[in-house]
Design a protein that fits this description.
Elements lengths: L6 E7 L3 H12 L4 E4 L13 E2 L1 H9 L9 H7 L9 E9 L2 E12 L2 H15 L2 E3 L2 E5 L8 E7 L5 E10 L13 H7 L1 E3 L5 E8 L12 E7 L2 E7 L4 E8 L1 H7 L2 H11 L14 E2 L5 E3 L3 E2 L2 E3 L5 E2 L7 H21 L4 H28 L2 H5 L1 H5 L6 H5 L10
Parallel strand pairs: 1-2, 1-9, 2-6, 4-12, 9-18
Antiparallel strand pairs: 3-5, 4-5, 7-8, 8-9, 10-16, 11-14, 11-15, 12-13, 13-14, 16-19, 17-18
Helix pairs in contact: 1-4, 1-8, 2-8, 3-4, 6-7, 8-9
The structure holds flavin-adenine dinucleotide.
Flavin-adenine dinucleotide binds next to helix 1, strand 7, strand 11, strand 14 and helix 8.
C-alpha cells in the first residue's frame, strides 16, 4: 500500500460522483490527492441511476467523457466489456388516477456500481491515490497550516494524515465531520428539513422480469402522497428501484419492500417479486443543507453540502457540478489559505446549485398534497409547460473547470 503517513495537498472523503470527480480534476491539475471511501468498491448506492442530459453534459465538462453514450468513461470501470447503457427517452408518470408518458431529452441509465467506479478509476489514472474500505474523520482545526484527518483502514489502527485542504464529499449518510466541536461544529452541522423523506432502493437481475412490464429507455415513476418509486432498466439487463418514502409510511408498511409494493400497486404498476430478494439499502432523511459549506482548510461538496428531493433525478449532476465549481477554490487553497475562499465557494453554490435544489424541494412538497397527487396527471403535471425539461434540468450558468 502507498505510504499514507504523509502530507497531502488535498484529502477527499467520499468517492461518489462529487468526491471522485473532484479527485480527478485536482489530480489532473498536478495536485497530490488522497481519495478515501469507507465502502469497498465497486459499491452500490440508493439511487434511481438515471443520468439526465444535463448530467451527461456535466461529465463532459469535467473531461470525464466525450461521448453522449458515456462508453469511453464506463470502459474505465469495466475495461473491454463494451457496456451498453439504455438511452432514456421517456418518463411514465403513474398515480392512482392514471398515467401519462412524457418525453425527456435523451439521458442514460447506468448502475452506480459501474458509474462511480469508472470515475474513481479515471481519478486514479490521473494520479490520485484511492483507498477503499477507509473510514475518515476530520479533526477540529488546531493548526492554521493544515487540516488533520484520521483514517481507519479495514481493521488497521487509526492513522492520521495532514492536508493543505480537506474536501468533504461523504454524501447524505456521512459522519466525517461529527468530531468537530464549538462554533465550527455548530456551523457545519447538517440541518435536516422537517418531515424529510428517506431513500431506499435495490438493483436486481432483470432478466426474469418481463421486458414488456418495464421497458428499456423509460423511467416508470409511481407517485403516492406518502412517497414515490422509480423503476428503470440499466446495463446488463439489471433493474433499479429507487424510492423516497415518508418514514411513518415505511413503518406502517413494515419494510421498504412493502412500502414500494403498496405505492406501485396503488398506481396499477406491478411489483416484480424478484425485488424481494434484492439487497436493499436505505438513506438517512435526505432533504438538508448546512449553514456553511466550509471552514478553515475545509470544503463541503455534493450531497454532503445540500440535497433537495430525488424526484427530478438531478443529484449526480449537482454532485459533479459542485466538484467543478469548488475545484478553483480548492486549487487556490493549496497555494495559500484565505478564509474568503469558503465564502466564494458558497456564493458559487448558491448561484448555480441552490436554485435547482429548491425547485426539487418545492416539487417534492407539491407531490405530498394528496388531492394534487390523485389528480396529478390530468390536472397538474401535463399542464406545466416544459415539465419534461424540469425533470431533466440542471441549473444553467457557466460552470468553471
Ligand atoms: C431514492 C434516490 C433516488 C435518486 N435517483 C437519482 C437519479 O436517478 N439520478 C440522479 O442524478 N441522482 C439521483 N439521486 C441522487 C444521487 O444519488 C446523489 O445526489 C449522488 O449520489 C450524490 O453524490 P455524492 O458524491 O455527493 O455522494 P454519494 O454518492 O452518496 O457518495 C458519498 C460517499 O462517501 C462515502 N463515505 C461516507 N462517509 C464516509 C467516511 N466517514 N469516510 C469515507 N467515506 C465515507 C460513502 O461510502 C459514499 O461512497 C437519488 C437519490 C435518492 C436518495
Amino acid at each position: 500500500m502507498t505510504d499514507i503517513d504523509q502530507h497531502w495537498q488535498v484529502v477527499i472523503i467520499g468517492a461518489g460522483p462529487a468526491g471522485a470527480t473532484c479527485a480527478f480534476l485536482l489530480a489532473k491539475s498536478g495536485k497530490k490527492v488522497l481519495l478515501v471511501d469507507r465502502a469497498t468498491f465497486p459499491r452500490a448506492k440508493v439511487c434511481g441511476s438515471c443520468l439526465s442530459h444535463k448530467t451527461i453534459e456535466a461529465l463532459q465538462r469535467a473531461g470525464l467523457s466525450e461521448r453522449a453514450d458515456l462508453t469511453d468513461l464506463l470502459d474505465a470501470g469495466a475495461p473491454g466489456k463494451n457496456i451498453d447503457t439504455p438511452a432514456i427517452k421517456n418518463i411514465k408518470l403513474c398515480t392512482a388516477g392514471g398515467a401519462t408518458t412524457l418525453p425527456l431529452r435523451t439521458g442514460r441509465s447506468v448502475s452506480r456500481e459501474l458509474l462511480d467506479w469508472a470515475i474513481v478509476k479515471r481519478a486514479q489514472a490521473a494520479g490520485a491515490v484511492f483507498i477503499p474500505a477507509c473510514s475518515a474523520s476530520v479533526l477540529p482545526s488546531e493548526n492554521a497550516d493544515y487540516r488533520t484527518v484520521t483514517l481507519t483502514i479495514g481493521s488497521d489502527a487509526l492513522k492520521t494524515v495532514r492536508a493543505d485542504c480537506a474536501v468533504i464529499a461523504d454524501g447524505i449518510n456521512g459522519q466525517s465531520l461529527a468530531q468537530l466541536s464549538g462554533e465550527e461544529g455548530r456551523r457545519l452541522a447538517p440541518v435536516i428539513a422537517r418531515g424529510s423523506r428517506i431513500g431506499a432502493g435495490t438493483v436486481i437481475d432483470g432478466r426474469e422480469v418481463s421486458p414488456t412490464l418495464y421497458q428499456n429507455g423509460t423511467i416508470y415513476m409511481a407517485v403516492h402522497k406518502s412517497g414515490y418509486v422509480g423503476i428503470v432498466r440499466l446495463e446488463d439487463e439489471k433493474i433499479d428501484l429507487g424510492a423516497a418514502f415518508d418514514l411513518d409510511f415505511v413503518r406502517a408498511c413494515g419494510s421498504p419492500q412493502a412500502a414500494a409494493r403498496k405505492i406501485l400497486e396503488s398506481c396499477n404498476l406491478e411489483y416484480p417479486e424478484q425485488l424481494d430478494s434484492g439487497h436493499w439499502l436505505g438513506t438517512a432523511p435526505f432533504t438538508r443543507k448546512r449553514k456553511t459549506l466550509g471552514a478553515r482548510r475545509l470544503f463541503v461538496i455534493g450531497d454532503a453540502a445540500s440535497y433537495g428531493e430525488p424526484f427530478t433525478g438531478e443529484g449526480i449532476g449537482w454532485a459533479i457540478n459542485s466538484a467543478l465549481l469548488a475545484v478553483p477554490h480548492i486549487l487556490a487553497a493549496t497555494v495559500k489559505w484565505e478564509d474568503r475562499l469558503v465564502s466564494l465557494w458558497q456564493k458559487d453554490h448558491k448561484q448555480h446549485l441552490a436554485g435547482g435544489q429548491q425547485t426539487s424541494r418545492q416539487l417534492g412538497a407539491l407531490l405530498r398534497t394528496s388531492e394534487l397527487t390523485n389528480r396529478l396527471i390530468d390536472s397538474v403535471l401535463v399542464k406545466i409547460p416544459g415539465l419534461s425539461q424540469i425533470l431533466s434540468t440542471q441549473p444553467e450558468g457557466s460552470i468553471r473547470r
